[in-house]
Amino acid sequence: MNDLSNISLASSASAASGLDRIGAVDAMRKRLLSRVDLADADYASVVENKLELEALDAFGAQLQGASELESVSWLIRRVAQLEARVNALTLTLGRWETNREPPPTEPERHVVEMDENVVQEGFHYVERMQGDVCFRWIGPAPKARVYLPKIRLPLELTLVAPAAYRGVQFEAARVAFNDGAWTPVIVERAEGSAALRCRPESGPSRDGLLHFVDIDCGATFRPADEGASDVRKIGLALSRIEMVSL
Question: Full-prediction pTM beyond 0.85?
Answer without folding.
Answer: no
